[in-house]
Amino acid sequence: MGYPIAMKNEKRITACTLDCPDTCSLAVSCREDGSLSFTGNPDHPFTRGFICPKTARFCERLTHPDRITQPLVREGANYWPVSWDDAFRLIAKRIDRLRSRPESILHVRGYGYRGVLADASKWFFGKLGASTTCGSPCDSAGMAAFEEDFGALAQNDIHDLGNAARIVNWGRDLSRSSVHLAAIVRNARKGGAKVLSISPGGDGNADFSDHMVRIRPGTDRFLAAALCMGLADAGVADEVADRCANFEEFRGLLAGLDLGELLGACDVAPEDYARLLRWYAADGPTATLVGWGLQRYLNGGENVRFIDAVATLSGNMGISGGGSYYGHSSGRNFIKWAARDVAPAPRALPVHDIGRAIIEADPPIEMIWVDGVNLINQLPAGDVTAEAFGRCGFVVAVEAFFTDTALRADLILPCALMAEREDVVGSSLHDWVNWSAKVLDPPGEARCDWDILAELGSRLAEPIIMPDREEALRTALDSPALHATPEELRAAGFLKASWPQVAFEGMCFAHPDGLCRLPDVLSPEPDAHAKYPCRLLTLVSRRAIHSQIPVDEDPEALEAFVSPANPCVVGLDTSVPVYAATPRGRVAVRVRFDETIHPSAVIVRRGGWMRHGRSLNPIIAPMETDRGGGTAYYSQCVRLEN
Ligand SMILES: Nc1nc2c(c(=O)[nH]1)N[C@H]1C(S)=C(S)[C@@H](COP(=O)(O)OP(=O)(O)OC[C@H]3O[C@@H](n4cnc5c(=O)[nH]c(N)nc54)[C@H](O)[C@@H]3O)O[C@H]1N2
Ligand SMILES: Nc1nc2c(c(=O)[nH]1)N[C@H]1C(S)=C(S)[C@@H](COP(=O)(O)OP(=O)(O)OC[C@H]3O[C@@H](n4cnc5c(=O)[nH]c(N)nc54)[C@H](O)[C@@H]3O)O[C@H]1N2
Ligand SMILES: [Mo]
């Protein structure tokens, strides 16, 4: 593969479009030996010259020999190359046939590629009137919780963490998911801030923290409720209580709780609880970083709501150095061009249980278009989704690799990847908007998603004409927070959107009455399963984004990390094969011991491929979070067995 645009000894600036909060500005260059190199752009005020391992080695993926570089059609178990012309003809014929009942077409889009132009498929299938999906595999339970609490998903500027006296890292793994957040926390610590991390263990937080608190998986709401009790007993300032719409009701809820029971439910030591209470009650602001892991449970939204309540009652909302950080929408700097002139979808199938939803859809789904998501591998019950794809009759996957999802498609269309197409990206962590320039040509016949859809649209009996790309960008960038043009952004490479440094300043929240809401119910934890007593935590890997893992790199067996005190290891023979087993089946693992892990947790790093026996999603049941249509992966009960 050649690099006609990035020439030797020349650096080109582009931006990462992977689904990651840091949204880095990248310098792409070509080494002496002809290989590509991705580094952090030193001139970008947020990226500051460094990037994470997953992006640094993304260039290996661009040039990987397994890349799909021409359209492929399936015949039985084999794929044969077809021309784009034939591929478009096949798809257009199918769409024309289904045009009078477009709800029989399902569009599934993921965030494997992010950006303003990446919304092209959303617009196209919206225009067609196709069915879509609702909910998410990612962060929607926590987002819904924030909206319920404060009326909007907003947080202080991430650099305002430097003004915190204390940072409670409630459930992030600072060593893995966001290298720039980790750097900001490290700097805040150098400046004198103290850091305490709360998690079920097995992470890399010790290097970033002054104190570590271990918690039983999924039970953060009990610890947070206990803290709310302590804060309420010590007395909540009137100016805080008056900003809560339901303070008295919340006090009533707390009055019925027992501290010992709460601490027992979350298995947090009384001295850790006492320290946290002191932290939140002390002078000077305490910032709370709310993790996404703790909302991937049946009561995930409630976990987040109670943590927000701690930040609120302790007087830390709406002030510099305080706040509750979850993220903000990476699209908030843009006008949503893809929603213009598009009617709401006729139906939306729940993504956490997508296989069953497709099988039971009435009227049936007769065509599926998947782009930017490895649906079968990454969502629970992947075996059911695979079956649903098989029954549907016509599946098109726009993909660059033979993922478990692409391998169930009738037609695979090869897409360009980041650095091979242009786009504009915003971040869910910072306020910079980056120009993701095209610095390489896509290999072979691969094309960017926009071009694929534009051509397909023009071939339909009743054509769908994509808007002008430049106009779509122009519309998107002319937002109240940005007011930029594509020309300005291309010339500058990145621009900063303007948002307040402090979210909800003065405790003015985004609900119409300006008040926040405290939780109205504390749900008990579901009983542990008698035969599968642990929780299966499928956590992020440091070196790859989700399933975008070089296939040749996978070690032999999946590693499962557990405490030596885990009840599952009693009687387990680790000299013969060991399996992680759930009521849905079992997957071979190699046991690794880590005494920092809570005894009820089994930790496996996610993203491995199903067809290599390295995805746990086929044995994870489809469960929905309490709000936001999220996916409750970590509520899965599990045991280890021989
Ligand atoms: N067990 C378990 N599973 C989980 C989770 C968990 O906690 N536990 N977490 C979930 C979370 S947080 C998320 S966000 C999801 C992520 O799951 P996915 O969204 O499926 O993420 P990826 O595995 O990165 O797959 C994205 C795909 O998009 C493709 N792609 C990249 N660029 C482009 C492009 O420009 N065009 C097109 N058409 N395709 C492109 C890539 O090749 C890749 O195959 O996984 C979820 N899965
Ligand atoms: N390297 C890398 N970076 C990524 C990604 C990637 O795949 N690889 N994916 C990106 C995406 S799309 C996402 S959504 C994020 C995911 O990033 P995170 O949500 O941060 O990742 P997770 O590993 O799912 O969960 C984070 C931490 O939650 C903790 N945790 C789990 N259960 C509980 C609990 O009950 N209570 C508490 N207090 N803590 C708990 C675990 O210790 C875990 O380390 O990362 C983004 N960044
Ligand atoms: Mo995610």
From TrEMBL:
NADP as a keyword?
no
Record has Metal-binding as a keyword: yes
Give the InterPro entries listed for this entry.
Answer: Asp_de-COase-like_dom_sf, Mopterin_OxRdtase, Mopterin_OxRdtase_4Fe-4S_dom, Prok_Mopterin_Oxidored
Ranges of residues in domain 4Fe-4S Mo/W bis-MGD-type: 9-66
Q: What keywords does the record list, in alphabetical order?
A: Iron, Iron-sulfur, Metal-binding
What highest taxon heads this organism's lineage?
A: Bacteria
One example GO MF annotation = iron-sulfur cluster binding
Kindly give the Pfam families that the UniProt entry links to this protein. Answer: Molybdop_Fe4S4, Molybdopterin
Report the protein name in the record.
Anaerobic selenocysteine-containing dehydrogenase
Give the species this sequence originates from. Desulfobaculum xiamenense
